[in-house]
Design a protein that fits this description.
single chain; alpha/beta; TIM Barrel; Helicase, Ruva Protein, domain 3; 2 domains; two-stranded parallel ribbon; 11 strands
Length: about 400
């Protein structure tokens, strides 16, 4: 059997410490004292393994709140020196002009900031701390002023789902490169949270599919932990670029993994650490990636229930973490999907190919904004009936965009 391709995206929960108390936190982060479970020297060892397995991968340094680690600048700098593309996932409350500048000098290529409402009271209630919205907004404004690429993360709840369209406008106006709408998986402290109903979930995905197309030249609009978006978009528009193979389904265990604050490795942050989870302090990352039981299951899925019969099984597959959280079975049907299977299998559409020269040029684009550039080029090529993207086509689109 061929070895699996290495992950291109790795999320590392550097700490469980956090200055907020979000009701939906999958990590159950909180104010903690004492050293982190993974020391700076351990972290350097982990980074060497990550770079060895996945040269050039995007590495999301998150938490908890990663800026509470005093060695965050050293970790980011080491990651960058090893050829990785470090980005910061933060609640934004600790971002200042000086901190942003120091992080960029340490090799950080971009930022993802969580903002769950344009209403301070709603955001503060979701984040469990009064005054959080004001601090986060100051952080976002500092990022916007710095010119560093950033994305905004919005966890969709019953309290804020009516804001989604306005939030996209806000993100566009303030200069974000993308809006990521996250859908709750009931793990960690989120086990006690009230999720959207399946009907509300479907309605939110319908809006995202529509806005993704409407805003395609201005900002990326994406759903996270919601592979059903492929089905929703495909039913509305059979030619939707969301059906392209590179963006289909969940990448957990196939192109993505996470490292917990203690060094455990799981296919995604919402698949919880268990007694059998492998730890990087004991087992090499390459061995975990290639032979880990959960990773193997996700690469050769044996879906159950409606997911087993669904015509979108290959392009969607449901959220495996949500299935596990609801049933204890990684392969169970996704309970938040309303679709009743019918018809022939819908295969992911093939995206335009990339010439070797164009691929090399794409690698020179900062990893944090690379997906947006890649997607835009594939859209452009498809609209012109071009099957292979070349440097000449890249230059043509760049000229049309005025860049």
């Amino acid at each position: 059997m061929d070895s699996p391709a290495p992950p291109f995206l790795i999320s590392w929960n550097l700490t469980k410490r956090c200055n907020l108390l979000c009701g939906h936190c999958y990590l159950d982060s909180c104010e903690l004292t004492g050293p982190d479970a993974v020391s700076t020297e351990d972290a350097y060892g982990f980074l060497a393994e990550i770079a060895g397995l996945s040269p050039g991968a995007m590495l999301v340094l998150t938490g908890g709140e990663p800026l509470l680690r005093p060695d965050i600048f050293d970790i980011a700098s080491r990651a960058s020196s090893l050829g990785l593309s470090p980005v910061i996932g933060t609640n934004g409350t600790l971002l200042t002009e000086k901190t942003i500048e120091k992080l960029i000098d340490s090799g950080v290529q971009g930022f993802g900031v969580s903002l769950d409402s344009l209403n301070p009271q709603v955001h503060d209630r979701i984040r469990g701390m009064g005054g959080a919205w004001e601090k986060t907004m100051k952080g976002i404004e500092a990022l916007s002023a710095s010119g560093s690429p950033f994305q905004l993360q919005f966890t969709v709840t019953r309290d804020n789902r009516e804001e989604m369209a306005r939030f996209i406008d806000f993100a566009t106006d303030i200069g974000a490169k993308a809006v990521n709408f996250f859908f709750l998986v009931c793990t960690g402290r989120g086990q006690k949270a009230t999720d959207l109903t399946p009907q509300e979930y479907e309605s939110a995905l319908t809006l995202i599919a529509r806005k993704e197309k409407e805003y395609e030249s201005r900002i990326m609009v994406r759903a996270r932990c919601a592979p059903h978006l492929v089905r929703v978009a495909g039913l509305a528009d059979p030619e939707s670029t969301l059906l392209k193979g590179a963006t289909s389904g969940c990448i957990a265990g196939r192109g993505y993994l996470r490292i917990s604050p203690e060094g455990f490795v799981t296919p995604c942050p919402y698949i919880p650490v268990s007694p059998s989870s492998p730890n990087l302090k004991e087992i090499p990352l390459g061995e975990i990636w290639e032979h880990g039981s959960e990773f193997a299951a996700l690469r050769s899925p044996a879906y159950q229930g409606r997911c087993n019969k669904c015509e979108y099984a290959e392009s969607c597959g449901g959220c495996r973490a949500r299935a596990f959280a609801s049933t204890g079975d990684l392969m169970a049907e996704d309970p938040w999907c309303l679709h009743e299977p019918k018809g022939k299998p819908v295969k992911p559409k093939t995206a335009p190919a990339w010439s070797p020269e164009a691929e090399e040029r794409l690698k020179n684009i900062p990893a944090f904004i690379r997906p947006m550039i890649k997607k835009g080029l594939e859209r452009y090529a498809s609209s012109k009936g071009i099957n292979t993207i070349t440097p000449e086509l890249m230059a043509e689109l760049k000229s049309k965009a005025g860049r």
